[in-house]
Amino acid sequence: MRVLLDTHLLLWAAGMSRRLPAEARVLIVDPANEVYFSSASVWEIAIKRGLDRADFRVDPDRLLHALPEMGLIELPITARHAAEVVRLPPIHKDPFDRILVAQSRCEPMILLTNDAVVAEYWDGVRLIA
Known about the structure:
Elements: E1 2-5, H1 7-14, H2 22-29, E2 34-38, H3 39-50, H4 60-69, E3 73-75, H5 79-84, H6 95-106, E4 110-113, E5 125-127
Parallel strand pairs: 1-2, 1-4, 2-3, 4-5
């Protein structure tokens, strides 16, 4: 299975946080799965760290070094992903979440999220709580 992690699940996985749900942990470590992180998530982390948000204190450069070591694969944002955003219903206004949904639809892959609103987009989004 091809899996894309949303930003919070990515942070929790990289930080080995107890907040990472067990179901997500199992999917991430399963060698049968290809697990991806989006360049949009790194961009979101960098922006929100610059705003001094308490939940985004990770150093983006250190994170970029750690993610491949965890076996995670980078998914760059393409023009096709950006164009897909126009086809999304106005469920969520967060541009980072919207591009993650668009990427999961284009590739296709399962988007794992802990955000119930994001899970409303399509059946390729899996709510992990």
